[in-house]
Structures are given as structure tokens and as C-alpha cells.
Amino acid sequence: MWEGGDSMLVANVVDGAMMLSTSTSDGREQIVGIIYPSDFIGRPFGSESPYSAVALTDARLCVFSRATFDRFAHAHPGMEHRLLQHTLDELDRTRRWMLLLGRKSARERIATFLLETSRKLAQGKGQDCLPLDHFTLPLDRQQIANVLGLTIETVSRQFSALKRDGIIALPDRRSIEILDRAQLQDMAEADETV
Fold first, then answer.
1. pLDDT digit string, tens, across residues 25-63
2. Which of 8, 54, 118, 180 is the one with CA 20 to 30 A from 131?
3. pTM of the entire structure?
């Protein structure tokens, strides 16, 4: 799905991870969201896609033509209600992300990102929202820096500091093992009262 392109499809992510991105006027890419299993992508009731959607990992999607989906949603008010609920949930998530980007330190951003990734990947595995303690990041460190408004060097330093403090283990460049979830949670919530 490409930014500015005709919005001809909508989909639910069944497996894998995708990123939503937009381009600045000078051509730089900005990641504006990460999509995990059970998340919805596409623009129902709209004609143009406001962002690009690209797979970060192998991904399986349940795809519908937008026109067919729009007709189905109109015929089933419960579906329209669920779409509205999904939209409001995404709005709340976006507002939390604005707090993260505007007020949290680099360490707090990394902690929040790891906890959210742990939770979202668990939902995709059908584990009743029990967060994963060991997972593979769908993003590389440059992409994480892009999402969090940090530099790649800052991301790497923060991962190393969390490892040194015994909060996480880094078996390889993309694998994360959360060793002290409570301390990571305390870090993530350090600035939540602002």
C-alpha cells in the first residue's frame, strides 16, 4: 500500500509485522506506526491512502477490496461500531505516543517501546495478552531510532545500558529477553504523570 495511492484494499494482519510510513516534503521517510497481528490496515470509506504500509517480516493478511468491505460494513452496523472503536483505540494510542515522543527520555522511550512490542507480539500469538519475555524485534535499530525520534547511536547505547543493568538480555541484534519486567515498567512510566 503506497502513500497517496488509491485505497483499493483493506486488511487485517494475521501474522507478522508491518510499518506505516509517510514521506516529508524533502523525501525523508518517517515511520508513523507499527502494525502487528489483529491490527487493521487500509482506509475504509476513503479513496486515498494517507501512508505506505510495508512488511517488516514475513506477513500474512486477510485482504478485502475496499468497495466490498464498505458494502459489508454498511450492511452490518456492528462492524461499523467495531471500526469506530478501533479508530478511537488508535487515537488513544497515538496520544500516548505523542507523550512518549514529547516528554520521555531516551531510556523511557526504549522501555516503553520494548514493553509495547512484547505485548503486541503476544496478542498475535493468541496468548491472552500475556506479554512475551523473549521475542525478536521486527525493526532494526535504525528503524527503532526513526520510530522513537532518536539516533541509532542512542538506541544502541540504551540497549547496552539496559543489558548492563540486568534488565534485558540481547542474545543477538534483534532478539530481546526481558529479565526484569517490573524495572522496565517503572522506567517506562517514569514520566506518565506529565
1. 888 888 888 988 888 888 777 778 888 889 999 999 999
2. 54
3. 0.78
Query: Phi, psi (5° rounding) for residue 37?
Result: -50, 140
129: region left, alpha or beta (phi > 0 left; psi from -120 to 50 alpha): left
Residue with cell 478485502: 64
Among 3.30.2130.10, 1.10.1470.10, 2.60.120.10, 3.10.580.10, name the CATH number for the domain at 9-97: 2.60.120.10
Q: What dotted CATH number matches 105-188?
A: 1.10.10.10
Rg of the chain taking only CA atoms, in angstroms: 18
Dihedral of alpha carbons 126, 127, 131, 135, sign: negative
Residue reference for cell 510499518: 19
Strand partners, 60: 15
Residues near 160 by Cβ (< 8 Å), separated by ≥ 6?
none
Q: Which residues pair with 168 in a beta bridge?
A: 178
